[in-house]
Design goal:
With 285 residues, this protein is of the alpha/beta class. The protein folds into 2 domains: 123 residues, Nucleotidyltransferase, domain 5 (2-Layer Sandwich); 146 residues, Nucleotidyltransferase, domain 5 (2-Layer Sandwich). It has 9 helices and 12 strands. It has a 5-stranded mixed sheet, with helices on both faces. The longest helix is centred in the C-terminal third of the chain and has 24 residues. The radius of gyration is 19 Å and the shape is globular. The mean pLDDT is 93. The structure holds zinc ion. The site of zinc ion has 6 residues, from loops.
Length: 285
């Protein structure tokens, strides 16, 4: 019997699932109160863990940069206030008496999509920002100070939107839902079109919507060229996140067979956390 509690900590929600012999047998979700304080996040984490019993180990996927060896959060934005410097692994192990593994959410999302594939793979999560994580030479590429290579800060639009990193025109700002929205606003200057409605218009073949999508794909092509230049061994790219729509993205996927959309994107976090636990068990990290 192997029973693992997997927890996915994001700025908005803490999602969790209990895996018994590799299958999800229970799930739960609470607000994370990430923008409030560390204590508020920990209250939500404790509430989550108390939902479950009979687990042998805990595996956590969390937003923020993590040192997976120590389970310490090296850096987190204010989406998880007070998380920077927090010893998450130690906290869970001491309070609940179970072994705990921890990793960054982009790394876990990537693990959830690898399957048996060991080819060099880039996972891009297109949401409010861009999460980018690379699997290279059989392992997750950690970059400097666990920044995973900062592939979301590749410049793709000279003079584009100002990024938190201080540069302009990063993929983070241009390829995210926020970036797509900026393009949509340009094509619909007198309307406020929500992302979901925009995708409906793309499906209906509305000319302006297709024009906006084309403008977005042109930026995507710049990113692809730059990322390939930096990682010549790259074989596959997996997309997930709220700014990805299967139909709207079809032209991009048709042109680039190496790009696909993630399986079960809602479960990326907990499934990735389970893969993380398995990897730890087998010592193949
Ligand atoms: Zn940037």
């Amino acid at each position: 019997m192997n029973s693992v509690l997997t927890i996915d900590i994001g700025g908005t929600r803490i999602k969790s699932a209990l895996f018994a012999n590799g299958e999800i047998v229970k799930t739960h979700s609470v607000l994370s109160h990430g923008s409030e304080s560390r204590d508020a996040i920990l209250a939500a984490l404790d509430e989550t863990i108390r939902e479950y019993e009979g687990f042998d180990a805990v595996s956590v996927s969390s937003a923020g940069r993590f040192d997976p060896k120590t389970g310490v959060c090296v850096y987190a934005s204010d989406n998880l206030k007070g998380w920077t410097g927090f010893h998450l692994k130690e906290y869970v192990e001491e309070k609940y008496g179970k072994p705990c593994v921890v990793d960054n959410d982009a790394a876990c999302a990537l693990l959830s999509q690898l399957g048996d594939c060991s080819q060099d793979t880039l996972m891009l999560t297109l949401g409010t920002g861009v999460g980018a994580c690379l699997f290279k030479d059989g392992e997750i590429y950690r970059g400097q100070n666990f920044d995973l290579g900062a592939l979301q800060h590749i410049t793709i639009n000279e003079g584009g939107a100002l990024c938190d990193c201080g540069k302009r025109g990063c993929a983070e700002k241009e390829l995210s839902g926020t970036g797509l929205h900026r393009i949509i606003d340009k094509w619909y200057p007198n309307e406020s079109v929500a992302l979901r409605d925009f995708f409906v218009r793309v499906r209906q073949g509305e000319e302006k919507a297709l024009g906006a999508m084309k403008e977005y794909f042109d930026l995507f092509e710049v990113y692809l060229a730059k990322v390939r230049e930096r990682i010549p061994s790259l074989k596959r790219i997996v997309l997930s996140g709220g700014a990805v729509d299967e139909v709207a993205f079809a032209p991009l996927l048709e042109k680039h067979p190496e790009i696909r959309i993630a399986d079960e994107p809602n479960l990326c976090g907990v499934k990735g956390a389970y893969r993380l636990y398995e990897k730890e068990q087998h010592g193949i990290r």
